[in-house]
Amino acid sequence: xxxxxxxxxxxxxxxxxxxxxxxxxxxxxxxxxxxxxxxxxxxxxxxxxxxxxxxxxxxxxxxxxxxxxxxxxxxxxxxxxxxxxxxxxxxxxxxxxxxxxxxxxxxxxxxxxxxxxxxxxxxxxxxxxxxxxxxxxxxxxxxxxxxxxxxxxxxxxxxxxxxxx
Length: 165
Hints:
Elements: H1 5-20, H2 49-54, H3 57-68, E1 73-74, H4 75-82, H5 86-99, E2 102-107, E3 110-118, H6 120-141, H7 146-162
Antiparallel strand pairs: 1-3, 2-3
Helix pairs in contact: 1-6, 1-7, 3-4, 3-5, 3-6, 4-5
C-alpha cells in the first residue's frame, strides 16, 4: 500500500468511527443497558474523552457524521450515519442545537422537512476532536511498522464496509 502513515491513521479513524455506532450490547452489560465503562461495557477509546468533556459520545459521532457529509442531513439520514434510531437522533440534534454545534434549516426541496447542519462552533469542535484522535492514534501506531499500519487500515475498512448493522 502506498499511503503515508498519517493517511493510515485517518483511514483507521474513519473505519473506527463507522463501526462505533454499530456495536451491539456488550455481553457483560448491566440491566439498565450500561456496562462498567459506559453504555457498551468496554473501555473507551482515548479520543472519546472529548465526548465526556463536551457531552455524550453519540453527540460527538453526530458532529463527526455531519462534518463528513457532503451537505446537511435529514434526521433519518443522520440516524443512519451514526447507527441510532430516529427518536435518538432527534434527541441528539436537540442536544447539539442547545450546545450551538448544529442548526436546523428548512429543506429547500421540501418545506415539510428539516435538515441538520454544523455551525461554525460545531466545525471547530470537530477539528479539535479530530486532532485529539489523530494524536492518540499516532501514539498507538508508533509501535506498528508502516506495513502493519497499512494492513490494519485495510482490514478495519473492510470490516466497516461489510459490517451487517
